[in-house]
Design the sequence.
């Protein structure tokens, strides 16, 4: 039976809507009273796992799920061994560099050499500043990275931005964009290649719905 890894959080509702459009109903995950982390759709055609967004590619890479929905930001940071199939178009956000509004810096390249940049996206941040040929210290933070420059621990942050409201409310200004991100459909490479559990049929249906 097909197993799908779905992400908790902002992408969940749209992901469930997408699968429902091809006949797989995982809407029980949207019930506030539901505490199950694994459900079977009513037609018993597939199983869905509800996991942290960062864990979706892990479940797919290790074969516990044949398909998954995850933001491209997670894929860029983790670089998992999965098949990246479809840009689903929802869950838009961007990975950006931000500084305090009082900062004299208005471009990432203007940041001081060997300055500090706080981020939970350590690999993406390192790669970006390496491309700029600007040596900086990446400070890994996994909570509210906005506190880095607020407390003076860092000159800047690299973080996901959607509306920009959080930055504005914390006195930060977006100065550069590393890349834009949307939700992606991914697959376990071997399962996809061998078409286990009729993955190709589901992918074709999902691709058609996404394009129409």
Sequence:
């Amino acid at each position: 039976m097909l197993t799908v890894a779905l992400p908790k959080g902002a992408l969940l509702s749209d992901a469930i809507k997408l699968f429902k459009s091809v006949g797989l109903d995982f809407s029980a995950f949207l019930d506030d009273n539901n505490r199950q982390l694994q459900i079977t759709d009513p037609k018993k055609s597939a199983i869905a796992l509800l996991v942290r967004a960062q864990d979706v590619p892990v479940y797919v890479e290790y074969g516990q799920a044949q398909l998954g929905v995850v933001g491209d930001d997670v894929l860029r940071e983790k670089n998992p061994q999965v098949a990246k199939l479809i840009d689903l178009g929802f869950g838009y956000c961007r990975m950006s560099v931000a500084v305090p509004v009082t900062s004299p810096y208005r471009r990432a390249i203007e940041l001081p050499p060997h300055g500090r940049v706080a981020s939970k996206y350590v690999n993406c941040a390192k790669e970006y500043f390496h491309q700029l040929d600007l040596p900086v210290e990446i400070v890994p933070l996994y909570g509210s990275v906005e506190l880095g420059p607020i407390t003076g621990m860092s000159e800047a942050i690299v973080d996901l931005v959607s509306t920009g409201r959080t930055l504005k409310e914390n006195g930060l200004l977006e100065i550069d964009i590393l890349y834009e991100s949307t939700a992606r459909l991914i697959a376990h490479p071997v399962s996809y290649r061998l078409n286990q559990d009729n993955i190709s049929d589901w992918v074709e249906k999902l691709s058609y719905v996404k394009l129409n």
Q: What stands out?
A: The helical segments are 12-20, 56-61, 72-78, 122-131, 147-150, 165-169, 189-194, 199-211.
